[in-house]
UniProtKB/TrEMBL annotation, chain A:
It holds the Pfam family FecCD. Belongs to the binding-protein-dependent transport system permease family. FecCD subfamily. GO terms for molecular function: transmembrane transporter activity. Its main location: membrane. SUPFAM superfamilies: ABC transporter involved in vitamin B12 uptake, BtuC (SSF81345). It is found in: Cell membrane. GO terms for biological process: siderophore-iron import into cell. The keyword Transferase does not apply. The chain crosses the membrane at residues 12-33, 71-88, 100-120, 126-147, 159-180, 210-227, 247-278, 290-313, 319-338. This is Iron ABC transporter permease. PANTHER family: FERRIC ENTEROBACTIN TRANSPORT SYSTEM PERMEASE PROTEIN (PTHR30472), PERMEASE OF ABC TRANSPORTER-RELATED (PTHR30472:SF67).
Automatic annotation (TrEMBL), chain B:
InterPro entries: AAA+_ATPase (IPR003593), ABC_transporter-like_ATP-bd (IPR003439), ABC_transporter-like_CS (IPR017871), P-loop_NTPase (IPR027417). PROSITE patterns: ABC_TRANSPORTER_1 (PS00211), ABC_TRANSPORTER_2 (PS50893). Residues 5-242 form the ABC transporter domain. Keywords: ATP-binding, Nucleotide-binding. This is ABC transporter ATP-binding protein. SMART domains: AAA. It comes from the Bacteria. GO terms for molecular function: ATP binding; ATP hydrolysis activity.
Length: 348, 275
């Protein structure tokens, strides 16, 4: 049992190169799938035509205007959720933390539900639900922040407790709104929204989340050593010269904004932010310098194929992404843990 | 003698309870100061305040630089503080997904940019630190594959890698077998100019430190309702006199010279047997 098993990890640079390549190839391949099956050769032609400025061909609209933004959105959201999950697990030092821990998804669902059932954001047109979700997400994050601060600071335990409590409180508010509206279609669209989808992706919707994911990922990489220290415990981090309170506040705000925007564009896609960081730790270890890039790339590829599956499995219906991530993620994660080599922190 | 740390009228409050009351303590440069006291007296709290990790509820902590100039510890940027004071907390969990070397490399955080990769110079420092605690061959082993005592030594190696003139160690000898208890303290005393550590083993305290501070309660004060304070301070042979040991630790004791070595040992026995 105490026999050393060094070298069980995968080397970082080759793995990153493979994952990057896999992302690009997956995006292109995924464009072939959908209600209309397009040959891969045609897909490549359609993309290269655009990139080289040639006259658009037969598949241009479907490939470039519909499927590519959707595929890229899946990658962006998957990467963002994985990065946010890794950050959250470090912030609260808890293996069960996911991006939605701070009540963000419940707050977003209250906002989105209000938009769907009452139409109070009707002025935003097609962005009404997203706007409602974003407002709700930011409102709930602010609430968690204020509650935790008032009780003495953003310590892991306080964040977890206030996040969990507010989550269930806000969930019942959302349910109550659905119940009040008495409209069965509203209930259905709320449920579909909460389980997540990247179906509504357009180029215009893509850039804000893409920008935020990149900024947050680079920002966290730029302080990877401080994050490593924070993950080791607050006294240890403080003893190592890290300003723990400031780091926690910055991390909290960054994650809240990122997750709020992700939820606004894609709903509450579960499991990605929980399992992808754990899977990444399993293959490259817990140092943030290697964990964050691998989690981001892995999360992106994972959600991309989840979206393809969601489109194909019961055509012409689309399954909500949260259903697919749960169905794939839960057994996959149990399998990973079942290998008995993985612990988070010191726990078995 | 120049001071590296000075506590003036320091009190501490944790979770609504007063832990320490009006503590004055000078830590002179180049000395080994031991902090002893019964469980729950506030030894760890005192050490955390000295390390600048916990803010006192009253009083002031000052840190002295090389020329002996004192400065409020709070005003020192935390990064600069961590280059002068290395603090290793008690009972730290070693992360399972970090290799031992990666965990020890955290000790370099105060001296590197937060985005830096480390590199071979850092690896040499880490290896030297692990070598000093006898774990050089475990550098690439996952943290959870170490035994309890090895984990403790690995965490202490992180303190060595921090390479500071002042080391504060909370119960460094916990989980260690006898050979390592003394050897480890000596390793630290050689590496750091000034060493402050809490220990449980009074005999070890008597033999190793230049000076001892006892955290406890003066006679007649109820420990359950009053915060602790420093009740004895001075050379170990004075602080661990039978009278003090009986008053502050509730046991009888006698200091006896080692038959072959030039040092005293503390023999401890139940109080009623003392005469």
């Amino acid at each position: 049992m105490s026999r050393a098993i060094p070298g069980r990890r995968l080397p970082f640079w080759p793995l990153t190169a493979v994952l990057t390549l896999a992302s690009v190839v997956s995006v292109v391949l995924s464009l072939a799938f959908g209600s209309e099956r397009i040959p891969v050769g045609e897909v490549v032609t359609a993309v290269t035509d655009r990139l080289t400025g040639e006259a658009p061909g037969t598949w241009d609209i479907i490939v470039w205007e519909l499927r590519l933004p959707r595929a890229l959105m899946a990658v962006v959201v998957g990467a963002g959720l994985a990065v946010a999950g890794a950050g959250m697990q470090t912030l609260v030092r808890n293996p069960l933390a996911d991006p939605f821990l701070l009540g963000i998804s419940s707050g977003a669902s209250v906002g989105a539900t209000a938009a769907i059932t009452t139409g109070f954001l009707g002025g935003f047109g097609i962005y009404a639900v997203s706007t409602g979700a974003l407002l709700g997400a930011i409102g709930s994050a602010l609430l968690v922040y204020l509650v935790a601060t008032a009780q003495g600071g953003l310590t892991p335990l306080r964040l977890v407790l206030s996040g969990v409590v507010l989550s269930s409180g806000l969930s019942s508010v959302a349910s109550f709104l659905v119940f009040l509206s008495g409209d069965p279609r509203a209930a259905q669209s709320v449920m579909f929204w909460m389980l997540g989808s990247v179906g509504g992706a357009t180029w215009e919707k893509l850039w804000i989340p893409a920008f935020l994911v990149i900024v947050l990922a680079i920002g966290m990489l730029a302080i990877h050593r401080w994050l490593d220290a924070l993950a080791a415990g607050s006294d240890t981090a403080a003893a190592l010269g890290v300003n723990v309170a400031a780091l926690r506040t910055i991390l909290f705000i960054g994650l809240a904004v990122l997750v709020g925007v992700l939820v606004a564009v894609s709903g509450g896609i579960g499991f990605v932010g929980l399992i992808v960081p754990h899977a990444a730790r399993l293959v490259v270890g817990a140092r943030h310098r290697v964990l964050l890039p691998v989690a981001a790339l892995g999360g992106g590829v994972f959600l991309l194929w989840v979206d393809v599956l969601a489109r194909l499995a019961v055509r012409p219906q689309e399954i909500p992404l949260g259903v697919v991530t749960g169905a794939i993620g839960a057994p996959l994660f149990l399998l990973l843990m079942g290998r008995g080599q993985y612990k988070f922190g010191g726990e078995r | 003698m120049s001071l590296v740390l000075r506590l003036s009228g320091v009190s501490a409050r944790l979770g609504g309870r007063d832990i320490l009351h009006q503590v004055d303590l000078d830590v002179p440069a180049g000395r080994r100061l031991g902090i002893i006291g019964v469980n729950g007296a506030g030894k760890s709290t005192l050490l955390r305040i000295l390390a600048g990790v916990l803010q006192p509820s009253a009083g002031e902590v000052q840190i002295g630089d090389a020329s002996g100039q004192l400065q409020n510890l709070r005003r020192l940027p935390s990064r600069e503080r961590a280059r002068r004071i290395a603090f290793v907390p008690q009972e730290e969990v070693v992360a399972a997904e970090l290799l031992v070397g990666e965990m020890v490399a955290l000790g370099r955080v105060p001296r590197t940019r937060p985005w830096s990769r480390g590199g071979s110079a850092e690896r040499e420092i880490v290896r030297a630190a692990l070598d000093a605690v006898g774990l050089a061959d475990r550098i690439d082993v996952p943290g959870d594959q170490l035994s309890g005592g090895e984990k403790r030594r690995a965490v202490l190696a992180r303190g060595l890698a921090q390479d500071c003139p002042v080391m504060l160690l909370d119960e460094p000898t916990n989980h260690l077998d006898v050979a390592w208890q003394l050897r480890l303290l000596q390793v630290f005393a050689e590496r750091a100019q000034t060493l402050v550590a809490t220990v449980h083993d009074l005999d070890l305290a008597l033999r190793f430190f230049d000076e001892l501070a006892v955290i406890g309660w003066p006679a007649g004060l109820d420990p359950s309702t009053h915060p602790a304070r420093i009740v004895a301070l001075g050379p170990p042979t004075d602080v661990l006199s039978s009278r003090h040991v009986a008053a502050h630790f509730g046991v009888g004791s006698v200091q006896v010279p080692h038959p072959q070595l030039d040092q005293s040992h503390l023999l401890i026995h139940p109080r009623e047997e003392s005469r």
